[in-house]
């Protein structure tokens, strides 16, 4: 017979231990600034942020200026990480760096792509959820980590060219081969705001059991269940406009290959991918700031930020 009171007590105990590992001051980044970031990046002024366009460059400058205001250093000499693809096309990632307090030579890579699909004669595809949401969240998490640093160094990777084949993430891996063995984990954010009806944040992961022992895995699971919104493992097979979706095979999305985390997976780096899956606004003109669930987005970003802190504390060195 299952003795439910003992199971409940055990869960509460694990949850309490997990919460005790979070920053003592709580989350101190500005939620208003988070919403301002996503609203700005998803405005018509950026013309859909398509790679190798003026709107894309304007988004890149916005991200760099925001990092400078936060006093976040570049990973190298400059924030801009330029690359070429398809022979004559050019793009550029933006990379920031916040050193860790205990393991400065080991890294967590937090990634989100800032490019989208641009515009046509009739519509500007503003990409609020895809992926101004992840980009803005990275900026707010950077604000948080600057004030309460992690044990491991944090690389903030704003990728370009995700929509044209993950080319920015591939370029990062090619350019930073010396860092590969020192990267503990990639956490990728792609579409974390949803549409107005979105209620669940979803994730997939790979090889987390190489970083966390059984107790730590239970604490991570308990924290995922303790926030304002559900955080569910796995994605639905696909809804909305999947004809233009990433990694569609037989009308199903291969979520492991659906965004930049796939490049880290191929490099044998453990990853977590947070998102909401596709929805009716995906890759349409309706994916704008007014189409997202703002309360959900604030809660999703907070949940991810708390999980980053917990994982930073729990990862085996």
TrEMBL record:
The organism's place on the tree of life at top rank: Bacteria
GO terms, molecular function: metalloexopeptidase activity
Peptidase M28 domain boundaries: 93-300
GO terms under biological process: proteolysis
Protein name: M28 family peptidase
Provenance organism: Thalassomonas viridans
The organism's taxonomic lineage, starting at the top: Bacteria, Pseudomonadati, Pseudomonadota, Gammaproteobacteria, Alteromonadales
